[in-house]
Design a protein that fits this description.
single chain; 141 residues; alpha+beta; 3-stranded antiparallel beta sheet; 2 helices; 18% helix
Length: 141
């Protein structure tokens, strides 16, 4: 679970945390570097052995690409919401890319892109695969 908050009314800073858990254990992965990247495998040392979704080509490539792209784009795209949209639309390593299409032997695919801009009070939604569509802004509270 990726959890984040930004209490602008009290002058707080944005905070984020990745919680990974199994029926037997919970691990906290704090925000660091260019941000938090999460794909479908455990990253916490104590939980890796219990991962039954595998460390397959898809999840590992998406993690590697998204992490590298987040770090690289930090210098060129100042708006974190726009940066996240670019990451979610990435096709590097296709068909096992961040924006994934179904292929023979693997029916999993990206169905939508959702970016929550907690500092700006907005949600960006791309209905469908981000590499084929565009994100639309929806105001929050």
């Amino acid at each position: 679970f990726l959890m984040a908050q930004h209490d602008r009314r009290r002058g707080g800073k944005p905070q984020a945390l990745d919680l990974e858990w199994t029926p037997k254990a919970v691990a906290k992965l704090p925000l660091s570097g260019a941000g938090l990247v999460h794909t479908n495998h455990f990253r916490a040392d104590g939980l890796r052995g219990g991962c039954d979704s595998g460390f397959g080509k898809s999840t590992m490539n998406r993690f590697r690409v998204a992490t590298a792209r987040a770090e690289r784009l930090k210098a060129t795209i100042s708006d974190p919401a726009k940066r996240m949209q670019a990451i979610l639309a990435d096709r590097q390593g296709a068909p096992f890319s961040v924006s994934k299409s179904a292929v023979k032997g693997s029916s999993s695919e990206t169905l939508a892109g959702i970016v929550m801009d907690l500092s700006g009070g907005a949600l960006y939604l791309c209905a469908g695969q981000p590499h084929r569509g565009r994100f639309t802004r929806h105001r929050g509270v």
